[in-house]
Specification:
single chain; 121 residues; mainly beta; 11 strands; 57% strand
């Protein structure tokens, strides 16, 4: 089994910064593509940022220039650096990973439990 555990959320004032982490643990061979999603109250979960195994990245327009997704493959950890935070960034943030658990299996999708980010003065 594979576990993804997010951390780093909290309360921050507008214009502030937070760094989210998502650590993968358990039995697996490798992590493939990874993503950060968020879900605000009453809204659908949305894709925020995506990173490939080669660290190519894409972002939703609303966070471009403010958020940076990165990964440390040696530590099996995904990050989301969030700068210049706005009240509309308030949401529960989830990481998602495509995981290869064995050479003969395909990729399986795992989600973290989520971490709350609140941007408010």
């Amino acid at each position: 089994q594979v576990q993804l555990v997010e951390s780093g959320g909290g309360l921050v004032q507008p214009g502030g910064s937070l760094r989210l982490s998502c650590a993968a643990s358990g039995r697996f061979l490798s992590l493939d593509e990874m993503e950060w999603y968020r879900q605000a109250p009453g809204k659908q979960r949305e894709l925020v940022a995506h990173i490939t195994t080669g660290s190519a990245t894409t972002y939703v327009d609303s966070v471009k220039g403010r958020f940076t997704i990165s990964r440390d493959n040696a530590k099996n950890t995904l990050y989301l650096q969030m700068n210049n935070l706005k009240p509309e960034d308030t949401a529960v943030y989830y990481c998602k990973a495509e995981v290869r658990q064995a050479l003969v299996t395909g990729l399986l999708t795992y989600w973290g439990q989520g971490t709350q980010v609140t941007v408010s003065s």
